[in-house]
Amino acid sequence: MGPAKINTGGGHLVWKLTQYLKAGHFSLVSDETPPTITNKIPHNIPKKIIMFWHDKNPPHDVQVSIEKIKQNNVGYQTILFDAEMARDYIYDHYGATLCNLYDRRCIHKAMQADFFRICYLLGEGGIYTDIDIDCHASLDNICNFQDFGCFLLYTFGSPSCIDNDFIVCEPNSPIILSVLNQIQVHLTTPQRFTNVWEYTGPAAVTIGTMRLLFEQIAYHGNIEYFKKHLKIGERFLTARAFHGATFEYKNTSEGNWKKYRLPSKLYEL
């Protein structure tokens, strides 16, 4: 799997997101978007909720969060992957090359979680959610509308970005494939390593999505397929099912990449 064909200038695509959102190139979801009759997500999305914690014994606050997610999503299979399980999945489904990137280039647990969720969702589909949330209702409530193959959230900021902490998609989504391609580019290109957010996190999701948008425009002359396949929701929609929570692990270097001493030449690892 290689990178998208169009050279669009890399990181500056993040700064173009707001412009393209306002121009109507994306199909946006808001409180006014009508739900389905059944009030459930589309049938093509597997009824699985995927989470990641780096070891087999999450701390108490994380366990509480996981239990709330399970209790509020009856009818879903909930799967918690640890770092070893995630590695095994990548090796079994993508082979040694991508597994080597996971082992050697994903030098922080947050990067492993970022990389794994994209690999898993591409192969299996379903719902991925970060575990630092206080879930109070079904995750269906965030995206219970018809006809999408991939649902992402965006956050306005400087720059705005497409988030990666809550992703819903069908298997083999071209959006997720483009994101995985972009992460591979970041992890293998000889350049100075900046930060986790850019290399495997929301910036990578944003750039991968924007590259596919440009590819659709350049090679197909329209973006109707792209707009039908991808729905992007405003960040506040998550309040329908959960609120963010601050957990103790964020105060450690193992749990918070901002506190971790990151290498400057990731591509040499």
From TrEMBL:
Keyword Acetylation tagged: no
This protein's UniProt keywords: Transferase
Gene3D superfamilies: 3.90.550.20
Organism in which the protein naturally occurs: Commensalibacter oyaizuii
The protein, known as: Glycosyltransferase
InterPro entries linked to this entry: Glycosyltransferase_domain, GlycoTrfase_DXD_sugar-bd_CS, Nucleotide-diphossugar_trans
